[in-house]
Design a protein that fits this description.
Length: 221
């Protein structure tokens, strides 16, 4: 099973107890169509520092990152498309939009739950707060600046992925690794690059950047 498939399966398992069934289906339907790149990068980051790590042990971390991204991505979509603008409030046409709002909330909260007891918890909170600030600022921004503010989400989530992945095996993500991850997110014109677009050299780069930090810390001590 590849990293994207592992992430998708773990994300689906993580919402398996969500009720009602229509809400659970709204979540899993989005997972089916989504790029699992954040989760895949989480797994890759763990494996880069510990090639022998059991992927199963890191799947919850990957799912946590993916769920946070999916929830924020859906929130961004809803805030910009205003799905209720043409809805007949006396009919049932707005139900799908209501389910999407609930799905976004559940996705983020379940992602937090999966990362809550990990060293990535603080970065997860930071990611959500940064998203809120960016979406507030974009209200009065010109189109080019608004697009750039939107794009920050993918960069921030890639940073979260390398933090969660390295933390899962007892490592850390230094500033140089965070910058590398943010740049990787910006390499694609789409908002979320496909998992297959992660370069083959990514694992070696993650390991080298993390090792540089470890060597620097040893020298300082």
């Amino acid at each position: 099973m590849d990293d994207a498939a592992r992430t998708r399966a773990a994300a689906e398992r993580s919402v398996g107890d969500v009720e009602p069934a229509a809400l659970r289906l709204a979540l899993t339907d989005r997972f089916a169509d989504a790029e699992m790149t954040p989760g895949a990068l989480t797994l890759l980051s763990a494996r880069a520092l510990d090639p022998d790590v059991d992927a199963v042990a890191v799947e919850e971390h990957a799912a946590g990152v993916q769920l946070i991204y999916e929830g924020l991505r859906l929130t961004r979509e809803l805030s910009q498309t205003e799905p209720w603008a043409a809805a007949d409030l006396d009919a049932t046409g707005d139900i799908d939009a209501d389910l999407d709002v609930l799905a976004a909330d559940v996705s983020v909260s379940r992602g937090f739950y999966l990362l809550a007891r990990t060293a990535a918890a603080g970065k997860a909170v930071e990611t959500v707060r940064a998203f809120g600030r960016d979406q507030t600022r974009r209200r009065d921004a010109d189109p080019a600046d608004a697009s750039a503010l939107d794009r920050n989400l993918e960069a921030d989530v890639f940073e979260l992925a390398v933090v969660a992945g390295t933390a899962a095996v007892g490592g850390t993500a230094p500033c140089a690794l965070l910058s590398w991850a943010a740049d990787l997110a910006a390499d694609d014109d789409d908002r979320m690059p496909a998992a297959g677009s992660i370069p083959d050299s990514a694992g070696d780069e993650i390991a080298a950047l993390a090792d540089d930090e470890r060597l620097a810390s040893s020298a300082d001590s």
